[in-house]
Specification:
This protein is mainly alpha-helical. Helices cover 49% and strands 7% of the residues. It has helices spanning 3-16, 26-38, 42-54, 58-63, 112-124, 137-150, 160-171; strands at residues 69-70, 82-86, 102-106. Helix 2 (26-38) packs antiparallel against helix 3 (42-54), helix 3 (42-54) crosses helix 5 and helix 3 packs across helix 7 (160-171). The longest helix has 14 residues, at 3-16. It is globular and about 45 Å long.
Amino acid sequence: SLENAREAIAGWKKIHGEVSRDLISEEIHLAMVRKLVALGRPLSAAALFLHPQLYLRPSEFIALRAEDLLLPLPGARRYQSVGVVVAPRELGVTTKTNAQDGTVLVDQACQVTWGSVLAEHVHIRQGGGRLCPQLNLNSYERLLREVAKSLGIAELEVVPHTMRHTGPSNDL
């Protein structure tokens, strides 16, 4: 049931093999999220919680806008999934592989919490704009290093791209 996780890991191993960055365990990932909540940074905590779950590249994740999240219609019996549109065609942007309008569906039983966190982000960002306006690639990298250091795990290389591989690896 986690076919995307298997494909992501297979592609990662094929391209990067032994020289690829280490992932972080789910326990460390969630400890980092909890630390951000304790530091009074709930939006950064939500971003760090969501990023690995969506399997997105850091630039794709940071570029997400509230309108890129497709929430289920209240009362609808079908289509209860939250959808995330990556590289919307109307913006003229593409992914690293030149794709547009890619969609990630958050619909498995283990992902129910992610959908509610995404929905809450949409409600917070109703005025439009980026989903995580507090983050750019540099600030995201600083944030990860700061949280890792505060937890005493600074020796791990935790960078934004680590989060892309952490989600599918832990799922698999």
